[in-house]
Structures are given as C-alpha cells and as structure tokens.
Amino acid sequence: MSKVEELTEILVNEIDSFEKGLRKLETINDKINNTTVKLELEEFQSIKSELVRELTLSKNTQREFISSFEAKIKNANIYPKWAVVIFIVSLLISFGAIFYAYTVKQDISAIKKEAYQKGIDTYDNYINQFLENNPKTKMVFERWKKSN
C-alpha cells in the first residue's frame, strides 16, 4: 500500500498546487477586468491645437503673399506706354510705306508698258513713213519680206 499512498500523496499535492495556480489566475483575471485604461488626451489636445494654430498662421501668410503677388502683377507694366506707342506708330508707317511702294511699282509697270507700246508705235510710224518717202527702198523691203 505504500505505493498507493505515495501516489495519492503526489496526486493530492499536484491538485493543491493546481488549485493554488488557478486561484492566482482568477485574482489576476479579476484585476485585469477591474482595471480601466485611461488615456490622457490633454497633451494630445495641446499638440493638436498648436498644430492648428501654426497651420492657420502659415495659411494666412501664404494668402498675404499671393494677394501681394497678384497686386504686383496687375500693376506691372512690362513695356512703358511711350515705347508701345512708338512701336505701333512705326508699324503703321512701315505698312504705309510698303503699300505706297507696291502701288508705285504697279504704276511704274503700267508706265513702262505704255512707253514700250509708244516706242513700238513710233517705230512702226517711222518705218512706214520712211518707206513711203523712199519707194525704191519699199520695193526692196517687200521683196525681202516675201522671201522670208
């Protein structure tokens, strides 16, 4: 029987130690269930408010910069007014001179054609008059004309 008693004693000891462990786990479980986690949001709130303030300040600074930049662009004159006026006047004079030169060239061409025609007419009149005044020459000219 001694072995049965020993085994019983070991079994009782193991059950006791198991029950003690179980009690410890129950107390830890109760502590965990009763413990409340409390977050301290005050520090985060202060950081958040500081960031919001800095963002607002940055936004205002950017708006001021953009508005001043737009005002400068509106008031900026890239070229002085007198330079623009002179440029436009010079363009008008240039176009006027080109138009005048074109019309004069057209007139000169017409005058040249007219002068050429006058020269041809004068030449024909002179030859006809010469041939009428010189009948012998006229006969020679007519023979030459027929042969060619």
Provide structural commentary.
By secondary structure, the chain is mostly helical. The chain folds into three domains: 1-37; 39-76; 80-148. The protein has four helices and no strands. The longest helix has 53 residues, at 81-133. The termini are far apart. The model has no long low-confidence stretch (mean pLDDT 87).
Topology of this structure?
Elements: H1 2-34, H2 42-75, H3 81-133, H4 135-147
Oligomer: single chain
Q: In angstroms, what separates the terminal alpha carbons? A: 169 Å
Low-confidence parts:
none
Principal-axis shape equals rod-shaped
Percentage of residues in DSSP E strands: under 5%
Largest sheet: none
Rg (C-alpha, Å): 61 Å
Annotation, overall tally of beta strands: 0
- Helix content bin: over 70%
Considering the chains and any ligands shown, give keywords for the structure.
single chain; 90% helix; 148 residues; mainly alpha
Summed up:
The protein is an all-alpha fold.
